[in-house]
Structures are given as structure tokens and as C-alpha cells.
Write a structure and sequence with these properties.
By secondary structure, the protein is of the alpha+beta class. The strands form two sheets. Strands 1-8-3-5-6 form a five-stranded antiparallel β-sheet, with helices on one face.
Length: about 140
């Protein structure tokens, strides 16, 4: 019989960067009791995003963060700066990544690769507490 479960996962980011919440997502899946299905992860914000990324080598995360700073730098070239100089760059970085992920679930666990982790990609310096919606459906 098809079942589903959902929750809001709060994440407090302390500045720009990648914040790993793989363990919390895996715990949610395990607690749901669903063995086979799909996990949807959704970021409820326009200045933060989600990525599945390397979870073993910190240098890979640092390189990714540096790349996004180069392609969407802070500065005076943007019209939209309602919340400060990092406002529009945060929106651009979010638009270039994802706000929703779909991850298969098999054997009661998200089907992630050996070196894959699920990350909130925070793009603001003074961000509010972020909310990540988790939803699983399956059997």
C-alpha cells in the first residue's frame, strides 16, 4: 500500500557555503518506514539552494563555493539590492542550482552514490533559518 510522510527540516546556516544534511534526510527516510519510493527535498527560499555534491573532500566544496563567487560576484552591477550587496548574487546562484531534488529510495535508504551528500547551498552572509521540506512517498 502506498504511504507518504513529510516534515520541515530547519537549518541554521552561518554564512555562505555548503551545509551537509544527508544524515538528517536519511533519518527521516528511516523513520518513515518506507522501503521503496521517492524522496523529494525542497528548499523554501530564493537565496539558497540544494545540491548533491562530493561529501568526502572539503576541497571540492571550497572550489564549488569559489566558482559561484566568481560567476555571480557581489558589487554594484545589479539593480536589485533590497537586502544588501549579497542579495542579487544570492538569487543568481540559486537560479543556477536547484531548489528541488528527487532521490530514489531503496531498502529504506536514499539511493546516493558513495561520495554523494545532500547539501543546503547558502548564498547569503546573514541568512535567516532555512526551511527544507522533505516528502517521501512509496511502500
Amino acid at each position: 500500500m502506498l504511504r507518504q510522510s513529510s516534515m520541515i527540516l530547519p537549518i541554521r546556516a552561518h554564512g555562505p557555503g555548503l551545509y551537509d544534511f544527508t544524515e538528517k534526510a536519511c533519518a527521516f527516510v528511516a523513520e518513515s518506514g518506507i522501503e521503496e519510493g521517492i524522496l523529494t527535498v525542497f528548499c523554501r527560499h530564493t537565496s539558497a539552494s540544494l545540491v548533491i555534491q562530493e561529501n568526502a573532500a572539503p576541497a571540492a566544496r571550497r572550489d564549488l563555493e569559489a566558482f559561484f563567487k566568481r560567476i555571480a560576484p557581489e558589487g554594484g552591477q545589479y539593480e536589485h539590492d533590497d537586502e544588501g550587496p549579497d542579495d542579487m548574487p544570492a538569487h543568481l546562484r540559486s537560479a543556477l542550482t536547484q531548489t528541488q531534488l528527487s532521490i530514489p529510495v531503496r531498502g529504506g535508504k536514499p539511493v546516493l552514490g558513495t561520495w554523494q551528500g545532500i547539501f543546503l547551498f547558502e548564498h547569503r552572509r546573514n541568512s535567516p533559518e532555512r526551511e527544507i521540506a522533505l516528502h517521501i512517498i512509496g511502500e
